[in-house]
Amino acid sequence: MKNFLLACLLFVLVAAPAMAQTYLDPAAPMEERIEDAINRMTLREKIAIIHAQSKFSSPGVARLGIPGIWCTDGPHGIRPEVLWDEWNQAGWTNDSCIAFPALTCLAATWNPEMSYLYGVSIGEEARYRGKDVLLGPGVNIYRTPLNGRNFEYMGEDPYLSSVMVVPYIKGVQEQGVAACVKHYALNNQEVDRHWVNVNVSDRALYEIYLPAFKAAVQEGDTWSIMGAYNRYRNQYACHNSYLLQDILRKEWNFDGAVISDWGGTMDTDQAIRNGLDLEFGTWTDGLSDGASSAYDIYHLANPYLKKIENGEVGTEELDEKVRNVLRLIFRTSMKPNKPFGAMCSDAHIAAARKIAGEGMVLLRNENNVLPIELNDTQKPTILVVGENAIKQMTVGGGSSSLKAKYEMSPLQGITNRAGSQAQVKWVRGYVGDVSGEYNGVTTGQSLEDDRTPEQLQEEAVNAAKEADYVIFVGGLNKAHNQDCEDGDRLTYNLPYNQDRLIAALAAANDHVVVVSISGNAHAMPWLKDVEGILQAWYSGSETGNAMADILFGDVNPSGKLPYTIQYELSDYPAHQYGEMGYPGVDKQVHYMEDIFVGYRYADLYGRRRPIKYESQGVKYTITPPAHVALFPFGFGLSYTQFTYGKAVLDGNKVSISVTNTGKRMGKEVVQLYIADKKASVVRPLKELKGFEKVELEPGETKQVSFEITPDMLAFFDADAHEWRHEPGEFTLMIGSSSADIHAKVNYKVH
Ligand code: BGC
User: Fold this and answer.
1) pTM of the model as a whole
2) What atom in ligand 1 is closest to the CA of residue 138?
3) Closest CA to 361 of 476, 514, 139, 182
4) Cα of 529 to ligand 1 centre, how many Å?
5) How do residues 391-420 score in pLDDT, each as one tens digit?
6) Residue 1 structural domain
């Protein structure tokens, strides 16, 4: 009896707590679960969970019933399955997805509700496919229109991208899937991305390049973040002590996991010490180099283990990494009661179409050429010209390439919508990229064409002469040196002689509408010769339907540019300083335009003298652009008109009335810009600090108000290393783009 009681006591004291398995109890506090799990893990188990075991997964701890993590690209749809250790297709027949519009398009909606809808929809697809981490969204700032990956990002403005990134993250994470915001930080070009070191002022870093990441962390509560390939302060971003430890962890209190970009880990010691948690994609030559598994030779695998075993490093950093990875696992793969998600649902199709329709930007509409009225009597002849009218754009472009369940081409969308109410004809016009393959996913399209450019142009021009309308669908595509990862564009002009072709079409027909499928600005030497210009982005599965919605007026356009379209390349500030400013010399690129990125630079047009100043020991000379922007940041037309009232300031609240004076329901993006009239540092002429998209019936008026808070007035004081606003006068400007300010009011700070 005594022995039995003793055994019971022992059980209560020793075995029962051990069996309590706090880490498995979802109701227990997260940090207690983490400590409990860590206490149970062996050294090797800890090492195992901080690096990949396959192209897109890391193992959990099977012995403890802790599942691993499965990642997927991102950010426009769920990438098809690849083989365990190869980029090639796994050959699944049930991994086709809905391709959502590219993030430039999402940003162009200027509508956080669209961003949330996007996040929920793509999160549900990720969930259905059993993914725990979605590799996206991307929020690197649009510095040069040559950057091959701009289409995956949200434009040139830190405020717009900060507002738009947050609901995307929330929508994704509500599904039990982590967002992985990328590429942290300063990955603003693809050329030389694996070695270029970015030299940028602290002020530009904090004011321009970091805000969207900060919002993702502090407002979006992103559960993971991806390091960039490039270097900053001569340290690779994936294990960069300034970016990861000083800023991300200490200043922003990030408690999620830092994931390396695939192959972005370069140095074992730095990977150990500088804040990387989870290593993916490090290049190895597979299993042939003698290691039992290629993944064992990752920096955070055997090399790290050896250093611990021989006493070179302790386990403090390891435990910190394990904590961060366990937190990610508990939030995702071990989260109880997750929704099941859905794939290719009607709701996702509707979401893709809606977002695409709200993101397309009508840039020009002379003589109200659009919308094209369809009825049973007129039956116009519509000539569609261009490769992009038929080319599938969801395949290609790098890691965001998808295997879409379907992709409605522009031509199909236009033809379907026109039905019997128009005669739609298509001619090729030019040959661009005839390939249609990425990592084994093929479009199945045969785009080969032996005809010469002259023959193609002649055919198009002859047909244009006969048509009532010409809709030219061109732009860029997802081939290397276009809008594609791992390379930048080579010229600002459209490729494949499209400029010449468009000019010839405009000479042959008075009603030419140019639809640009692209994720980047390009020159438009034919601008004044065509009646219409529609920026249609890469709009995913529903491209053709969304485009037809706009062209034929079922949807009133309300997208606004998330970046400035300049006249020529040298009108972009990054291209003012020769190779030193882009793409860099001797592996060093210098952001000599400092904070004057995008409209902050375009706004200087017309100034006679350069702005000269010195900051942190660096001298800056900002020479104003030679040309006025073709289309300013925030610009976009509607089929209706809006008028603005007077801006009224009441305390810290500025309000304005907006009226729809046209005949159709429409949406307007009311934009608030703020200027500091006099400051101790050089400041931009205006900066976006608020916006709201309002829907108005014909004749309807709505009030839009913005509350002015001190952070909206602040600049980053590099010497003091803090945000600061100075007393004095500010101008609050409300407008429909960065260049169309309708009302101004003074605002005093005492
Ligand atoms: C890209 C990332 C992507 C990763 C995985 C990298 O090359 O830079 O954006 O998520 O590959 O495919």
Assistant:
1) 0.96
2) 9
3) 514
4) 40
5) 999 999 999 999 999 999 999 999 999 999
6) 1-29
Whether residue 17 has a cis bond before it, omega within 30° of 0: no
**Which 3 state secondary structure label does DSSP give 300?**
coil
Provide CB contacts within 8 A for 605, sequence distance 6+: 624, 625, 627, 628, 629
Task: Report pLDDT digits (tens) over 118-134.
Answer: 999 999 999 999 999 99
SS3 of residue 418 by DSSP: helix
Distance between CA atoms of 77 and 79, rounded to whole angstroms? 6
The angle subtended at Cα 450 by Cα 448 and Cα 453, nearest 5°, is 105
Residue 135 in contact with ligand 1 by CB distance below 6 A: yes
Q: How far is the CA of 437 from the centre of ligand 1 (A)?
A: 18
Catalytic residue (one of 73, 261, 488, 571): 261
- Same domain, yes or no, for 602 and 541? no
Domain boundary (592, 622, 652) is at 622
Structure tokens at 566: 């300049």
Is the dihedral angle over the CA atoms 499, 500, 502, 507 positive or is it negative?
positive
For a mutational test of ligand 1's pocket, the pick from 261, 400, 485, i.e. the residue with the most ligand atoms closer than 8 A to its C-beta, is 261
Whether residues 58 and 25 share a domain: the answer is no
CA–centroid distance, 633 to ligand 1, in Å, is 28
Q: Is 261 a catalytic residue?
A: yes
Tell me if 182 CB under 6 Å of ligand 1. Answer: yes
Q: Which one-letter DSSP state was computed for residue 331?
A: H
139 within ligand 1 shell (Cβ under 6 A):
no
